[in-house]
Amino acid sequence: ISEEELRAGMPVWAKDEDVRREFRRMDADGDGVVDAKEMARAWLKSPASVWLRDRGFGEYSQIFDELEVDMDSMVRLTLEDLAKMGVGDEEARHRIIWEIEALRREVKESQGGD
After folding, report:
1. pLDDT tens column, 33-45
2. Can you give the pLDDT at residue 114?
3. Are 82 and 102 in contact (CB under 8 A)?
4. How far apart are CA 2 and CA 89, in angstroms?
5. DSSP characters for 25-94?
6. Does 92 have pLDDT greater than 60?
7. d(Cα 7, Cα 5) in Å, to the nearest integer?
């Protein structure tokens, strides 16, 4: 994607300098285009707290931010990990794991897996 395409996908209130900074962060090889590999790498390093909030677990997003949990490490979490991190509600831990497992399936399917 180009910087203009990234801009189109960002919230209207995002400042131009934020869009440029995000684009530079994603464009690892500096060629002015963010390819699929660079997008995947950027996604893996993005904060898991945003994903968590989007799925209705906002009350736990601060824990994930404080522990600097990114998407790459989040997809490896277990019920035990969540308990150790401070997600005290057992039902919430199970629901979060269910969402993580759904994400794993989605990623696998997008990569052409069965």
Report:
1. 888 777 777 776 7
2. 55
3. no
4. 42
5. HH-TT-SS---HHHHHHHHHTSBHHHHHHHTT-GGGHHHHHHTT-BHHHHTT--HHHHHHHT---HHHHH
6. yes
7. 5
